[in-house]
Amino acid sequence: MIKEASNQFKVQLMCSLLSVSASGYYAWLNRKPSRQAEKNLELTKKIKALFDEEKSRAGAPRITKRLHQQGVHVGKQRVARVMRQQGWRAKASKKFKATTNSNHQLPVAPNLLQQNLCLGQSLKIIYSNI
């Protein structure tokens, strides 16, 4: 917030309004990321690679299992937390629904044309189901 507005207002003024010391703000601004933050960034990259490889179908349990297979020991809750922070949610795969059932004893419509169509006779037989 202070960094974005620093070209319009003095940093000292903004720090005093927000009850933050200027030296504390500059120390925070120039601080290196912690080891945990670096590990989380590395873990996020690995999770993203696996998530994309699974076409967004893998959740935290499956990704955790795959990370264990790769030698990365991390808990399911941590993977779930990283995925939640990044906004990644697994899509449920849709079940296959059979649209045709050929195992029935219902009568089949008779073939009235008997497939006797000659090539020179276009539009001679027109069929409609009204």
TrEMBL record:
InterPro entries the UniProt entry points to: HTH-like_dom, Transposase_IS3/IS150/IS904
Protein name: Transposase
PANTHER family found in the cross-reference section: TRANSPOSASE INSF FOR INSERTION SEQUENCE IS3B-RELATED, TRANSPOSASE INSO FOR INSERTION SEQUENCE ELEMENT IS911B-RELATED
Ranges for domain HTH-like: 40-96
